[in-house]
């Protein structure tokens, strides 16, 4: 069984209020963002912006305690 599909970085960041205290969480989202495997090998792959990359919810869940500790 596979986990939930990746969430686009742009959508995840849009859900967070613009508070400086949440910067560690934003940094975490950016640091674990990965391009979709299909998009990576398409002609647009090299031009994929950060916002179009995906974050795996399971990986985010695992690493959130570190970000919350910094908040």
Describe the structure in your own words.
The chain is mainly α. It has one domain (7-70). It has four helices and two strands. It has helices spanning 9-15, 23-32, 37-40, 57-70; strands spanning 7-8, 54-55. The chain has a two-stranded antiparallel ribbon. α2 packs antiparallel against α4 (57-70). The N and C termini lie far apart (33 Å). The mean pLDDT is 86.
Question: What is the gist of this entry?
Answer:
This protein has 71 residues and is mainly alpha-helical. The protein is built from four helices and two strands; from the N terminus they run E-H-H-H-E-H. Strands 1-2 form a two-stranded antiparallel sheet.
Helical fraction equals 40-55%
Mean pLDDT figure: 86
Number-wise, the strands total 2
Strand order within the widest beta sheet = 1-2
Main sheet? 2 strands, antiparallel
Quote the distance from N terminus to C terminus. Answer: 33 Å
User: What would you call the structural class?
Assistant: mainly alpha
Q: State Rg.
A: 13 Å
Labels describing this entry:
globular, 71 residues, mainly alpha, two-stranded antiparallel sheet, 4 helices
Topology:
Layout: E1 7-8, H1 9-15, H2 23-32, H3 37-40, E2 54-55, H4 57-70
Antiparallel strand pairs: 1-2
Helix pairs in contact: 2-4
């Amino acid at each position: 069984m596979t986990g939930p599909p990746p969430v686009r970085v742009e959508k995840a960041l849009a859900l967070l209020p613009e508070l400086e205290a949440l910067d560690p969480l934003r940094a975490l989202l950016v640091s674990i963002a990965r391009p979709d495997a299909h998009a990576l090998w398409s002609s647009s792959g090299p031009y994929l912006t950060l916002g179009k990359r995906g974050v795996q919810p399971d990986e985010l869940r695992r690493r959130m305690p570190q970000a919350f500790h910094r908040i």
